[in-house]
Write a structure and sequence with these properties.
By secondary structure, the protein is α/β, with parallel strands linked by helices. It has 15 helices and 23 strands. A hairpin with a 5-residue loop joins strand 2 and strand 3. It starts with 5 loop residues before the first strand and ends in a 7-residue tail after the last strand. Pfam families: Peptidase_S15, PepX_C. Keywords: Hydrolase.
Length: 558
């Protein structure tokens, strides 16, 4: 039942104040009221619930936020309060099947139709002035892409942070299931409507069981046991491996990139699991001449909603001030703003991404070195990948990190070099700073005695004390009909300066578990199988090389 408008509570005021201070936002300009549980009819006769944040003073515009995460005080302040107390009306919609909204929660599968129906409802409201913006982070950002599949004429701008537009392509990045991210998100989300304290204690006390479940086979049984059937979507994700399946097409919003014409701000992180789609989305929109901004910070997915909020929230507010409220001049110095890590690290403004670069080529050699000269024919490296003892994950650009001992982001990955199932090749110390801006590429002369094989490749930086830290990764599930030959793999985009005296390291392995599911080596479906078979790999060093995009000498990367 729709409640009457109520003034902010003490806790809402406190949360708004804390976000203002933490994110270094400009001072609030307005108080606001909150109206709970507005009912929004969908075409299939279920109702979604929404909360309306209404400024008490002049309204600068309407911002639509559609979220599966409910309306706790902290989250609602970040998505509603910070904008409402600066003159924006915010419509905070709860996704179907969550927090009182009708229907069944099917993550990302009904967002396009629901987005259209929400806008149809907005048109009928007496407060609607015919213009709105959309805003969202992560899954909330996916809902923004959904609204852009058939952009309503009233939508004038959008801000999308750390979010995919093709969900299936993310779930199966490189052709293999992103195990830890999808499992852990499903586990936490399946418990999100429990009371706060029991939920937090339950999740924390379950970390050991999460680790055991990630190590267990078959994948579906392990998930069912831990989640007690409360995340039925997970079984669908792990079982539907053909991205051409019409089931996945409902969550493929790539066509939105061809349909949007309004200004869009895309925000991401270099260690966020969605960084590739963020940058690809920017490239396509910029290529079409859309007014698009891009910000890439140094954070992981979780950090983007915490430390990253000090950049992302002020940027979003300024973007809405310019493109929704129409107040002030253009706020961004240049379309692209990226954080360059390494010596003299900091923010750089660029006219476009990627900037001009030239490839510097490194060749792995016998003796575990990376050199300027290619290896001779006959120089090889060998290792055996055993799915029963899979190569572990050390850092990288993925989303969740609930399992003990598995950390997303930048981390010390020195231990990988000592494993017998990993090949490492390390350069001589650099004589000068090396600014790597763009996507490194690795070409690997790969052979396997087992056609069912994956490749994990990484570029790391080794300091003078011998500590190694990840910089960029790539992963691919190889075509079993072609397990032998040169594999060309583009690693994650980066903006990083290698310090003088440090060294580059190439890491080659057959997996990274539990970030990705292990390749069982049998061709069996990991969702239902437990049978495993090792694979022995032979790397032809004479046809293997690393192409590193180095900033053009005239470009100020460092």
């Amino acid at each position: 039942m729709l409640q009457r408008a109520k003034d902010r509570t003490f806790w809402q005021r406190l949360a708004d104040q804390q976000w203002t201070k933490y994110a270094r936002l400009p001072a609030p300009t307005s108080d606001y009221t909150v109206t709970r549980d507005a009912r929004i009819p969908m075409r299939d006769r279920v109702d979604l619930l929404a909360d309306l944040y209404e400024p008490k003073g002049p309204v600068s515009g309407t911002i639509l936020v559609t979220s599966p995460y409910g309306y706790n005080v902290i989250g609602a302040a970040m998505t509603g309060g910070v904008f409402a107390c600066r003159g924006y009306r915010v419509v905070l919609v709860r996704c179907r099947g969550t927090f009182g909204s009708g229907g069944t929660f099917e993550p990302h599968m009904r967002d396009v139709d629901d987005a259209a129906d929400i806008v149809a409802w907005m048109r009928e409201q007496p407060w609607f002035d015919g213009r709105f913006a959309a805003h969202g982070y992560s899954s909330v950002g996916f809902a923004v892409w959904a609204s852009l599949m058939d952009p309503p004429p009233e939508l004038v701008t959008a801000v999308i942070a750390c979010a995919p537009y093709d969900f299936g392509a993310f779930v199966y990045t490189g052709g293999a299931f992103q195990l830890s991210t999808m499992f852990e998100w499903s586990f936490v989300t399946s418990r999100q409507e429990e009371p706060l304290l029991p939920r937090i204690l339950g999740v924390l006390s379950s970390r050991g069981r999460v680790r055991e479940a990630l190590a267990a086979l078959p994948l579906t049984d392990a998930a069912d046991k831990l989640m007690d059937g409360k995340a039925p979507w997970y079984r669908e994700w792990v079982s539907r491996r053909d991205l051409g399946d019409p089931w996945w097409q409902r969550a493929d919003l790539t066509d939105a990139l061809e349909r949007v014409h309004v200004p869009v701000l895309l925000q991401g992180g270099w260690q966020d699991g969605f960084l590739r789609q963020t940058l690809a989305g920017y490239a396509r929109l910029a290529g079409r001449g859309v007014d698009v901004g891009l910000t890439m910070g140094p954070w992981t997915h979780a950090q983007g909603g915490a430390a990253g909020a000090r950049v992302l929230l002020p940027e979003a507010l300024a973007w809405f001030d310019e493109h929704l409220a129409g107040s002030g001049d253009r706020r961004r110095a240049m379309p692209v703003k990226v954080f360059v890590s390494g010596p003299g690290e900091g923010w750089r403004d660029l006219p476009a991404w990627p900037p001009a670069t030239v490839d510097q080529v490194f060749h792995p050699r016998s003796g575990k070195t990376l050199a300027a000269q290619p290896a001779q024919p006959g120089e090889v490296g060998e290792f055996t990948y055993d799915p029963a003892n899979p190569t572990p994950t050390y850092g990288g650009a993925f989303v969740t990190q609930l399992s003990p001992g598995v950390s997303a982001g930048y981390t010390d990955d020195s231990a990988l070099a000592s494993r017998p199932d990993v090949l490492t090749f390390t350069s001589d110390p650099l004589t000068a700073q090396l600014a790597v801006i763009g996507s490194p590429v690795v070409e690997v002369g790969h052979g396997s005695d087992n056609p069912f094989a994956d490749l994990f490749l990484r570029l790391s930086e080794v300091d003078a004390d011998g500590r190694s830290r990840n910089v960029s990764d790539g992963y691919v599930r190889l075509d079993p009909s072609r397990p032998t030959g040169v594999v060309r793999l583009e690693l994650d985009p980066v903006a990083h300066c290698f310090a003088p005296g440090n060294r580059l390291r190439l890491i080659i392995a057959g997996g990274s578990h539990p970030r990705w599911e292990r390749n069982l080596g049998t061709g069996d479906d990991p969702a239902t199988s437990t049978r495993m078979q090792p694979s022995h790999r032979t790397i032809d060093l004479s046809t293997t090389r690393v192409l590193v995009p180095v900033a053009h000498p005239g470009h100020d990367a460092g």
